[in-house]
Amino acid sequence: MSGYEAKAYVTLVGAGQPLNGYEVAKRSGVPRSTVYETLGKLVAKGAAYELRGADDATDYLPLPPRSLLERLRREFDDSIEALESSLPAIVAPPGAHLIHSLKDAGALLARAEDVIAGARADLFLSIWPEEMKRLAPLVKRAAERGVDTSVLHFGPVADPVGHMYEHRFPSLDEDLEEPGRRLLVVAADRRETLVGGFAGDTAWGVYTEDPAVVTMAVEYVGNDIVMQVIAERVGHETMRGFWADDPRLAHLRAARDRYAALVRAAGPPARPEGSQAAPLHPGDVR
């Protein structure tokens, strides 16, 4: 509705009785010069009805709000169904797999919401409590509509959703070689993924539909879940022993130690005046 149409409709709804054009103009603020045109548009849309009296005067009644909302909902749903069938038919195959950068927390979380809301078959998440607070309602709705949902949650889980696993190995203190830095991974339908990180009030991330990156994201979350289950089965101390003592893992331990030292030396992400500096993350280390 236009502004005048909305004012006229609300006035009719609030009156509780039929009104003529003069009364609608007086109560709504719609100019008398346009009130009958405005009411005519409401009638044409089915949002109001004309009542003609014996003296040929015309009063107006609104379509009840509940009925109007149901009609709008049906029309909206019909439009969406038409678009779902017609738009894919005109989309050209992409010349390259979509990928774009996300440069702040708001954009990162909004894109994560898009991925979760679009999931239809399966959903993989690796997530921290801070981000789960915002994304939990959408994750829950995905699980409720039958999406096979696997969530690796860093820390205790207050309200489990889908197949939810608490990240306990290594412990959070051990895992946080980078103080204050949290990784977020969301992958839906083996078709799209978002990978990002948060450090204080800065954030970085990428979204892509590249199959290779999507596969890596799914395998990353899946393997980390397997690690948690194995650690619970064999014991955390046994798992720490494998990591600390097995000579086949020596080069991985050394690489992790070097990276941790670099991060500690870098300190908190620098923030020059008037700009936001990106935090150090694995892609920065050569």
TrEMBL record:
Residues 266-286 are annotated as: Disordered. It comes from the Bacteria. SUPFAM superfamilies: Winged helix' DNA-binding domain. Residues 2-62 form the Transcription regulator TrmB N-terminal domain. InterPro entries: TrmB-like, Tscrpt_reg_TrmB_N, WH-like_DNA-bd_sf, WH_DNA-bd_sf. It holds the Pfam family TrmB. CDD domains: PLDc_like_TrmB_middle (cd09124). This is Sugar-specific transcriptional regulator TrmB. It comes from Streptosporangium becharense.
